[in-house]
Structure formats: structure tokens, C-alpha cells
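R.M. (postdoc): so does anyone remember the format we settled on? I'll just put the C-alpha cells first.
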């Protein structure tokens, strides 16, 4: 079945344009102008990806993102935030709340569809040589099941966070520069290096004591080390 992309935006023209471009690329697309209608849809449906405006007439995109990340059914659904608010503070907040990407209006519909494809590809972890990676006696990564455990307790990471952690874990001790990490998870060359720092901060916080396994090599980048 075609993947379902949901657009939540208070501008009908944006929904119309994005729906057209997504359907041209063989996606299913569904648009909502209001938070209430989107939440009602979520009661019976789980989309494959959500394009979420931050400024909605009856709600806040940040709050919607927090809600989806807190619910078991939606915590792994990729979210691309779409907004006219381009301040770095808003970008960082969006990423810290669990968004996988952030697009500022005005935007190119073709570029946004390309980002949708890239985020969906990152969610699909390639078949690894091993099913599990164990690090430091407390961190376990289920590469085929797309799950993370710290001391046998499952930890919820976003698709992008999982991709970064898996990248570091597959070559423990190897120092990855921020640019190498960006190139591994983003196809777009204009993503700022600060994005990696925000994702690493989120991963460390979610991993708790296992977060100390991720080391910052000053002036270079990051590595995992037991």
C-alpha cells in the first residue's frame, strides 16, 4: 500500500500544492486545516509521516509534536515541521521535541517532497550484518527490530536519533565529524551542523546512564566508546 503523508496546515493552498506533488510521487496524501480534525483522524489512523505547521488556528504545532512523541502508537511516526518561524531557537526547539526535519516557509514543494522521501528512507534501517549491538554492558541496539534498550528497558528514539546512534555504534571508537553524521542521515547539504548537536543531546538524555557512552571529541565530532 502507498505510504500515507498527512499535512496539517491552516493554508488550504499549501495543502493543495503539497497533496498534488506528493500524489505525483505515488504517495497518498491527506490534509487538515485544524488541530481538532487531525486529532480525530489519529483516533483511528496512523500516518507514515506528518508535515506539521507550527502556527495553527486552534492549537500549537509544538504541542502536537510532543503529544505524538508521548503516545505509543505515534512515537515512531516521522514529523517534518513546516513554518514561517525560521529562528534558530524555533528550529532547535522543534528538533528537541522530536521532529525529524524542519522546513521554513516559503519553500519549494519539490524540495519538501524530497525531504519526505529522505526521512522515510532513514526510517527504513538497512539489513545489518548483526541483529544486535551491545555496548558497555548496558546499551543494546536491536538493528532489525528498530529498538533500543538500556538495562533491558526499552528507550524510545525518533527515526533520526536511531539512525545516528546506530551509525556511531556500528563503528565504536571511531570519531565521526558532524559533517559525516549529517551526510549519513541527510541528503541535503545545507543542513546546519548544530542539528547534530541537538540530536546528540536528545539521545544522551533519553539513554540516561548509557548516554555517557557517547563522547564529544572537542573540535571534531562524536564517537561511542565503552
Amino acid at each position: 500500500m502507498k505510504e500515507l503523508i498527512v499535512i496539517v496546515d491552516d493554508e488550504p493552498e499549501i495543502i493543495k500544492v503539497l497533496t498534488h506533488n506528493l500524489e505525483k510521487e505515488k504517495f497518498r496524501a491527506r490534509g487538515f486545516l485544524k488541530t481538532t480534525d487531525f486529532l480525530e483522524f489519529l483516533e483511528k489512523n496512523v500516518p507514515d509521516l506528518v508535515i506539521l505547521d507550527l502556527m495553527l488556528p486552534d492549537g500549537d504545532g509544538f504541542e502536537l509534536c510532543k503529544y505524538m512523541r508521548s503516545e505509543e502508537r505515534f512515537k515512531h511516526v516521522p514529523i517534518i515541521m513546516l513554518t514561517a518561524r525560521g529562528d534558530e531557537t524555533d528550529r532547535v526547539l522543534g528538533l528537541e521535541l522530536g521532529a525529524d526535519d524542519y522546513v521554513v516557509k516559503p519553500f519549494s514543494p519539490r524540495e519538501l517532497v524530497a525531504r519526505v522521501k529522505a526521512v522515510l528512507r532513514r526510517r527504513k534501517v538497512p539489513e545489518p550484518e548483526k541483529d544486535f549491538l551491545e555496548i558497555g554492558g548496558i546499551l543494546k541496539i536491536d538493528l532489525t527490530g528498530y529498538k533500543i534498550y538500556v538495562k533491558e528497558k526499552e528507550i524510545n528514539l525518533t527515526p533520526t536519533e536511531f539512525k545516528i546512534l546506530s551509525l556511531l555504534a556500528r563503528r565504536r571508537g571511531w570519531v565521526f565529524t558532524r559533517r559525516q553524521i549529517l551526510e549519513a542521515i541527510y541528503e541535503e547539504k545545507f543542513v546546519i551542523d548544530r542539528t547534530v548537536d541537538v540530536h546528540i543531546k536528545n539521545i544522551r538524555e533519553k539513554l540516561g546512564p548509557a548516554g555517557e557512552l557517547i563522547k564529544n571529541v572537542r573540535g571534531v565530532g562524536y564517537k561511542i566508546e565503552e
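R.M.: ...and that's the designed sequence above, right after the C-alpha cells. Also worth knowing: The domain at 132-224 is CATH 1.10.10.10 (Arc Repressor Mutant, subunit A). The first strand starts at residue 4 and ends at 8.
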